[in-house]
Amino acid sequence: MSFRTRLTSFFVLIVVVPMLAIGVLVFRLIGDSEQGKAYARAAGLNAAATSVYDAAQARAQKVATTLADQVALSKAAATGRDPVAQARLAQLAAQAGLVRVILEIGTSKRPLVDVGTGVAAIAPGAATVPATNGRPAATILVSGLAASEYANELSAADPGVAVVVRQGAQTLASTLPAAARHELPGPGTVHIGGSEYRAVTTLRRGFGTKPVHVTTLLNLAKTESSVQSDQLLAAIVIALFALLAFAFSVLASRALEGQLGRFLEAARRLGSGDFRTPVPTHGRDEFAALGQEFNNMSAQLERRLDELSRERARLRESIRRIGQTFASNLDQPALLELALKTSVDAVQASCGRASVRSAAGEPLRESSRVGPLAGFEARIEDAERAALTGAKLSEASSGDQFVAAAPLGPAAGETVPRGIITVARRGRAIDEDDREVLRSLAAQTTLALENIDLHYQVQRQAITDELTALANHRRFQELLATEMDQVRRYRYSVGLIMLDVDNFKLVNDTYGHPQGDIVLAGVARVVRESSRETDAPARYGGEEMALILPHTDLDGAVAIAERVRTAIESLEIPLIEGPGSLHVTASLGVAASAEGDKDALLACADAALYSAKHQGKNRTVPGAAPAADVVGAE
User: Which of 82, 110, 228, 422 is the most exposed place for a label (fewest CB within 10 A)?
Assistant: First the structure.
């Protein structure tokens, strides 16, 4: 191989190849940065939409309070004079610029007057109309904002944003017609009409019991165009730099081609990476000048290497910052995959895998893999075994194979690592910089996994009653509504048991509320243990509990209810103060339906429970059955 060829190849190795690697990482960082900006903008737009909604709701609340003080309105509510209230409310709505006004009587929420029923109104405010002349108090609900007006106003403020307003399965307004047929994540990406959008959804109070879903959709086409433009510019700059570097190496090699003797030794030193020893120069002839230029080139190469070293340090810092974004990811498999890919890229490994435990005491299972592990299996097992035993980063090597395993910190209440990230490569040992990066990424991944655990713990607490460990009232309503949807589709029978602890107020009055809490916890345990795997027990409120029984007819539901009743009757509850135990009973109302009407099923079970109470308590009464058809003790 000629001197020119060797010098050119060497220059390509130390300049062009690192520039290509930097180019790949720069492309990735550009894409991640632009995507992060787009996601942040989508979240900001949704926050602005929420602020507009809340402001409209606050205005509606003030108007509702003002209207509730109207004397004529109070008289109309008290006398039940619908025409008078209708006319008065219509006049007041027009004066206040309202799009919808509802006047409801008493706790039954029966609407006396509804002005503006044809408008999809949102952001309601509510106030109480005082009771007069022995009539119950009324509630007035007002809204000055129509869903279509709200959506159009937000879209007009930013043409790149579409707004969809939904309540339950009904779309109240949409500035992107095609979005009305799509499930909209919050937050997440969705493809609509051939375009990709970033969707962010918030829930707000609306008319009725169902919340209003406000979804903002940010078109990501502009973000993709920006990424492509930035990447093209970066590619041009890198290509020009590589081309210039390569041209310079060719010219330099031609200029030095005639060097012999002392220049040959200098070239060997240069090939070995020694840029600090200058070429000896004597006199003022052409060789001296050439030697001086050679020394200058060596100095320049040394500076370039220093620059590349600093660039690598900056790149590692960027990778550490990327690791900090893990904490916002709630998808554990995706998080582990991202952590593994980042670790492999950071240390320039050829392959790797991430493993995690599904629960305490369970063995590690592979979650994701990058590259083929063939040939590294034995070294990987050695490194992972050492990392799990010592709970610290461990290494294993054999020949040109080098493996590093970084353990993930233990989950709450555990002492052993919850997982491990392992990387492997050939030809280059794991150095201290690599170890530092792997430790940092493992720590960030551990923190992100803890955030995921905390998120799901809070999520479970939001749907569980703390005292009884049963589903709370809100979760009960959601489960029953979901079950009714399935009933309407597949036409099977679902049973419902409503349970009320007999004389519970007497327990509280006699023994105190702490003793009452123990009673409720004991009864809840009986309900839970008497339930089948597919059943859904819940605390309905106070001393009242409920049990949803999928695929169960009335006879089957009555049998289960009677089993629960007898178990409660035989329950012995220890007294907090003094020896002895307390016995309680319960009344149960049972209903079953294959029609899918949630409200009708609840009403039937509640009526049966009411009948059980009035027939003597401690009994099970089926809904819609004759009064004498009672199961249980008299």
Answer: 110
